[in-house]
Amino acid sequence: MEKHNVPSTENLHFQSDFEDDENSGDRYHIQDNYEKQNSSGENNIEFCEKFPKKLNSVAQRPHICNICNKQFTQKSNLTVHYKRHSGLKPFQCDVCSKCFTHGSGLNRHYRIHTGSKPFVCATCGKSFSQRSSLNAHYRLHTGTRPHVCDFCSKSYIRSSQLAVHLRNHTGTRPYECDICKKSFSRKDILKGHMVVHEAK
């Protein structure tokens, strides 16, 4: 497994943000026409030939974040991902002042204010504000769980779910309490822990 040191963000040029999701380098690429029906009436998702149908093996995603164990197909995607861990959030919403690491995150956030859900499931009509959410939703229809743990073979719909699961095997705890320095494997567990300090 190839791991990388966190690069300095000073004077570092980051590549353009992904169109819809900073995880887009890991997700299935589903063509704009999404589904075609075959003669039996079953829905078949059509995948772009540029992308492999499975991106779960370490060989196919050799670039690994040494903070959260998320895996990437390209080193450039990992470099962009490290920006998230840097704590820098230069993109601010002019409606509510919430800040984001990536411009793409701000663009997705704006849809909360506008109510826009431009990504529609061709099977059931459910709509989503993010393309990545639609792609994950399609897997509920197909039963596809492409992200497989190399340790125990447990599979997941989203790569982010696999990244969290991998921490059970590696013992990685990237979320640390600023008050008592206790660390946790998930952000939601840290938030629950903070209630203990707030009660004091």
Topology:
Blueprint: E1 2-4, E2 30-37, E3 43-47, E4 63-65, E5 71-72, H1 75-85, E6 91-92, E7 99-100, H2 103-114, E8 119-120, E9 127-128, H3 131-142, E10 147-148, E11 155-156, H4 159-170, E12 175-176, E13 183-184, H5 187-198
Parallel strand pairs: 1-4
Antiparallel strand pairs: 2-3, 4-5, 6-7, 8-9, 10-11, 12-13
Main location: nucleus
Keywords: DNA-binding, Metal-binding, Nucleus, Repeat, Transcription, Transcription regulation, Zinc, Zinc-finger
Protein name: C2H2-type domain-containing protein
Structure at a glance:
This protein is of the alpha+beta class and 200 residues long.
CATH topology value:
Double Stranded RNA Binding Domain
Distance between the termini: 43 Å
Strand content: 15-25%
The helical percent reads: 25-40%
Structurally, the number of domains stands at: 1
GO molecular function, one term: zinc ion binding
Subcellular location: Nucleus
Region (Disordered): 1-27
Family: Belongs to the krueppel C2H2-type zinc-finger protein family.
Explain what the structure shows.
Helices cover 30% and strands 18% of the residues. The chain has 200 residues and is an alpha+beta fold. It has a 3-stranded mixed sheet with strand order 1-4-5, covered by helices on one side. Strands 2-3 form a two-stranded antiparallel ribbon. A two-stranded antiparallel sheet has the order 6-7. The longest helix has 12 residues, at 103-114. The radius of gyration is 19 Å and the shape is globular. The model is unreliable at 1-56 (pLDDT under 50).
